[in-house]
Records
---
Amino acid sequence: MQTSPFVGELIGTMVLLLLGNGVVANVVLKQTKGNSSGWIVITTGWAFAVTMGVFIAKSFGSVDAHLNPAVTVAFAVATNDYSNLVPYITAQMIGGFLGATLVWILYRPHWAATPDPFDKLACFATGPAIRSKGDNFVSEMMATLMLILGLAGISSKHLGELAIGVGPYLVGILIWSIGLSLGGTTGYAMSPARDFSPRLAHALLPIPGKGSSDWNYSWVPVAGPIVGAIVGGLLIRWFAL
């Protein structure tokens, strides 16, 4: 099989979810080595997950390495080129599901050892600290807007060329910063491939005592990021970032 943008987005997103949801599972599931190690571990793990996901996506053929439908939407709006929407988002959603499934396999003995259904769902999808859907929507929108503006800043033509290989590390720092500063309200999904696909995996996989997949909330980490992405894309276009 040859490398391609589709394969790169799929494999990169799969790795992103394996490492990202993997660190959540390590922290919240019972009898793991990292149980109860806290938010700093989760945000750091997610930052590293994104960094590795970007490197791997590029190596498998995706020069863009979006790994996130919201990022794909944002740069489609910014460039007025929508040709990548369907292939990229399809690959990302499949990759998100596969990555979440790999987390289920890796932590298989720990699902039965964890009594709280909410903790099990947290290893797949996000949830609000305080359930207020309007406020939660705004949180996801603002976090995603910060993501898009941060990515635009990292790649801005006004800053000159980056040294080869530096970009993914800067993206990781951006994700780390967003998680630490803005992630405490909703868990900073910022991506349907990070939330909807793993939530679907949670619904379908035979996880003992898993409880509800909370579909009533599921629109928030999809709609919020997409709106934030559209706003970010328009800002990039208007200001020629």
---
Amino acid sequence: MTEPVSDREVVLDSLGVGIGVGLYGVTFGALATSSGLSVAQACALSLLAFTGASQFAFLGVVAAGGAPAAGALTAVLLGVRNTFYGITLAPFLRLRGVRRLAAAHFVIDETTAMSIGREQPHQARLGFWWTGITIFLLWNLTTLIGGVAGEQIGDPRAIGLDAAVAAAFLGLLWPRLDSMPARLLALLAAAVAAGLVPFTPAGAPIIVGGLVAVLVGLRFVPHREAGDD
């Protein structure tokens, strides 16, 4: 019989995930400012958007010459999944009022993973808050550090950092593709976006590819319920 997980273990696991993910913000900060954003703009994105894959998606569109509005729409499309995370987390967190609004900002892949499936509701809340707060603080701090460093780099194309934007985005996205339907959906969206590149303005292919992913995913890709392995 498996021994129950202690609160201490939940906190330590959450800190491990939070530190590992939070430190990656330095990459976003460096790529953002070396691609044309100011340090303040990079920090504002991390503070207000606070969802790594969406931030890199926005940066990828802008770095490719697309309009900021196109980048924002791409980021929103990618962030739609957080809405479903919120629905899944609500029974675990049991929050109301201002606390519920504050928690909504921390609804990301990692906090969801560290919350659902816990046998005890209070451990689900421990996992959520310790993971969310740790990532939020470190992500914003390392974005600032990376942003200041990125300003010193200059033109990202001179040392290949323009390609690093896409690589960093894929690095964050790949762990989310944990099933064959999700991977096939990602390939479909990528194929649609790649096919549109010669015929559409910068930023448009990824928006259309994202829309295809959302529409097809909602219709055909099964979603796991809370507590599923």
---
Amino acid sequence: MLRDSLKTVVYYNDRVEFRTKSISKKVRKIESFGTFTDDVKMKNAFRLVSDSMYLLHQKYSRGDELSSLKPDLLKALEYRQWQKNYADALPDNEQAERIGWEEIREDYLEEFLKWLSFAYCLDMGKEYYLHMLALIANQGIDSLLDKIAVEMGDVERTISKELLFKKRFSKLYNVIESEPEQRPELLKDYLDVWYKLEGSPDYHLMSTDAYIGYWCWEAALVTKLYNIDDTIYLNHPYYPKDLVHWNGE
């Protein structure tokens, strides 16, 4: 059953098929022996992780059974390991090439939080979380990411005192910094402004295939991770409640 009401199953079938083929093409490119440099393979592995996040997003919107998404999460972790392996293999004079593909940015953090949300809500396990967090790296740089990572089990992690992307994430950060009884209302407030914080993209109005569903993944992660009562925002249009309330069946 569709979870997103703005597009049809046929639309999502097409999007999922396109993304799946795109992933297969990139995998073949990386696995081709002697054809591409480690730099090219590193960049394609990065894109594979991004494609995997798109695929998870599209499948959720389409209404796929959530357990069926676990293989995609395992692949995402494998692709991110590939990215690190190829980056590590770059010669010393090319090591600077990896920085722009690894150093935290606002859009990267949004994608990290989406990945963490799917992984935690679908109970991929502590070993997965720690491996994932180690590959994401950027420890001790952003307080939001650091505090979420510690809550997920990365207890030896250095916690930054700085929130890097204040305009985008200060309201979410306030949720985890507040007293438990304040969190439901604060998270509802965050959901209410989330679309505007995303830049009010209006993808659903475009005559392109850019739209894949409006979901505030980080709200799912924080709700589940901090055991927040979501009663007052359960039916918020941007809240992926099925992910939060998945029970393993």
---
Amino acid sequence: MNVLIVHAHPEPQSFCSAMKDLAVTSLGAAGHAVQCSDLYAMQWNPVATAADFTERSDPDYLVYALEQRHAHARQALAADIASELDKLLWADLLILNFPLYWCSLPAMLKGWVDRVLVSGACYGGRRFYDRGGLVGKRALLSFTLGGQAHMFAGEQAVHGELELLLRPLLRGTLAYVGLGVLPPFAAYHVPYIDAAARQQLLDDYRDYLANLDHLPLLAMPALADFDRLLHPLHNEVPA
């Protein structure tokens, strides 16, 4: 299996970075080919601009997704985007590894998503969900956060259910481009726990990675369940 880990943490000594290192080592030891994009170390540019295209279909007005589609077809993407897209298309598994910021991705990683999930390659027109450009690949979120597990344990929890909180990422980003989405791995309460508890989290993550093939994918929409205007045909469409 080819694995791409996209890591976004500004501190190389962080626990989040230790999770990235563990994934690189354990997946490599299991015989998988692993590439890692360490966005801070790469000084990745997260800002989507007109400079992302060496050729434009409309030089007077920027519609970013349409220019992505044109640039992908004409091999006119900026070199940093083209390099990351090549890694993504190579990968069978994408791991986004990050600290949870405001219930979402850090700006650095959000900028990777904005610039690298290229229209025309990853999605476009009716090529989304189970017809997206990345169908056949899988993805997972691995992240650290300060909250405790019970704070995300269901609808009655103070922050609500974790997967619902992550829905814009799990469904609106990963599943949208066709990726099969594995259950997320959350490392809870990391800034406030001792070394033994941190080691237990790393051990749990190692076990999680060793059992990826046995984890069920999260339920996501299938376009066959919708009509041509995308009205649902059944009541069984995932909520």
